[in-house]
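W.,

You were right to be curious about this one. When I first looked at the sequence I had no strong expectations either way, so I just let the prediction run and decided to look at it fresh. Below is the sequence, 385 residues in total, followed by the output.
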Amino acid sequence: MDSKQVINIIKSGETSKVQFKEKLDSIDSIVAEMIAMANTKGGMILFGINDKSGSVTGIDYKEIQTINNKLANAASDMIKPAIYIITEVVSLEGKNILIVLVEEGISKPYKNTQGTIWIKQGSDKRKLTDNHEQIRLFQKSGILYTDEMIVPLTSAKDLDYKKIRTYLEAVTKEPYEDDAINETVLLNMSVLRDNRLTLAGLLFFGLNPQAFRPAFCIKAVCYLGNSVGDSLYRDSRDITGTLPELFEKAMAYFDVNLHYRQPEPNFNTVGVLEISPVALEEVLQNALIHRDYSINASIRIMIFKNRVEIISPGSLPNYLSVESILLGNAVVRNNRLVSFCSKLMRYRGFGSGIIRAVQNQPNIKFFNDVAGEQFIVTIPRPPEQ
């Protein structure tokens, strides 16, 4: 990093990824800062900068060595799991600045020796105490898959065995008798664990998934205008059921509330849906399969006069961006659901769904709302004829 880059960073002030320190006053405080950065998006700590004024105070050679040694030891011994830091020295105004770079970690959550987890909150940091937020950090590290967690108060009695049989026959390509569906089969399918249904088992094979997880439905509204604040709407409903049922019912909702257009001025010409059904299928399946099920919220479908919006809880996982998914990159957030859906739904699981959606609907737009923890797909509707 050269001096011009450092000057620009200092001028911009402290952010969630930049912190200023005149010197190393408290190793515990710096450890908490490094943990917060590793648990969030990474960042840097600049020693030799006044955190109030941003003025360059500098640190001498001996202090640089002392800070380097203390932080290297802290990164290994005071942070669990250990993190790796990079340090460099840049000279500004004849004074030395020590820059400590902390990368975003891949083994989240990171914590101190007392088990405290820190994350960034703007330019500050805070302790992470909420269970759902902790689960999300475990998700990002690949330690935990939410769809494999058990659902309290459920049992094998809450399963629809017809759906189980249909799935098994699709997998084995041969008839499957009801009495052959025993506890061992359910355990091997990861539908049952510790005599309780897994979330994937409930969502895919449950008799009534929303009885236990009411938020995991689709809330659909067809507005008369173009604002979510409009009080007038044509149709509003909560779509419930298993994931395959949610998919089919939501596609039927599009079919009813979107227009069919004749491609040719001929009375006998069959009308086509104003928005590509292929694009709607791919986007809807992605919302159902790849949403963040650690967030207790519903998928939303909003049909406006000029557009359709599909909003799924959870921003893109790990290092994915809109640009990367447009190239076919994918990260599996819900392993078991992907496995189930690839057998019974139109889902292929190759990371090509978004590409296919864009090919069939070139004006589709994607917005990864990290702050709002949601992923938004917007498809313009053609002007009414």
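Here's what jumped out at me. The CA atoms of residues 108 and 141 lie 5 Å apart. And, maybe more interesting for your project: The first strand starts at residue 18 and ends at 21.

Coffee later to discuss?

I.
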